[in-house]
Amino acid sequence: MRLATWNVNSIRTRADRVAAWLQRSDVDVVALQETKCRDDQFPESRFTDLGYQVAHVGHSQWNGVALLSRVGLADVEVGFPGMPSWSAKEGAEPAAEARALGATCGGVRVWSLYVPNGRTLADPHYRYKLEWLGALRTAAAGWLAGDAGAQVALVGDWNIAPQDDDVWDVGVFAGATHVSEPERAAFRAVVEAGYADVVRPHAPGPGVYTYWDYTQLRFPRREGMRIDFVLGSPALAARVAGARIDREERKGKGASDHAPVVVELS
Fold first, then answer.
1. Which residue intervals of 123-195 are DSSP H helices?
2. Distance in angstroms (rounded) separating the CA atoms of residues 133 and 125
3. What is the distance between the alpha carbons of residues 42 and 10, in angstroms, rounded to a whole number?
4. Residues ≥6 apart with Cβ < 8 Å to 72
5. Strand boundaries in 51-209, DSSP class E
6. Which end of the chain has fewer CB atoms surrounding its CB within 10 Å, N or C?
7. Which residues of 159-180 are buried (b: 16+ CB within 10 A; e: fewer)?
8. Taking residues 19-35, what's their average pLDDT?
9. DSSP tag of 16
10. pLDDT digits 0-9 by tens, 136-162
């Protein structure tokens, strides 16, 4: 089984590109992030025509996560237990954002995750990010406590570069988000709860990235970040036969600023 994750940075803009990639890559399950549309705007038929079942949650032109599967899509769950809410406007009631979607696909519990960005170290969104990651860690640890043999995949755009090798120049990010110690500690906490980064052993750094900003020729200059991950429970990690980052998909007109990450399961 092939499992993938991809921040597509607007599914309506890139539906044809995603469909073409699915056909070329022969992926069974793909988790999408940053779909940037409401549920009624998601181009579902573009993927059901290819044999995929679709689950999506999106509330506006921001955020949005989806799962496409041709090996079953059961027990769909919007948001994980304890997931924090957020309000962009002071005084407004916080609400759950479209950042987490889980479903069982081919016997694997797959979570498509779009971790909050954090913006700056002084921004309330940074505290929200750390709270969100803490809640994810608690939920994820609980899933394994309930069933140590569960096959769980926590996949998506984590908006964290957990090691210095995961950015082209860590000095550029001094005092910024994505590389701060609290964020890295929150990522490690999920790993220590029993979830292994199953891609890194097959795609070691340095110089291996999943995201390149559109500005300042970051992609051709190879100035990227590794912020998209597949973290697997012990039972899932034991099945991983290979993994790759499809850097080629970042090329060309109309590309997302992220590349797909693909894991091969035996």
1. 124-146, 181-192
2. 12
3. 10
4. 53, 104, 105, 106
5. 53-57, 65-69, 74-78, 100-105, 108-114, 152-157, 196-197
6. C
7. bbbbbebbbbeeeebeeebbbb
8. 98
9. H
10. 999 999 999 999 999 999 999 999 999
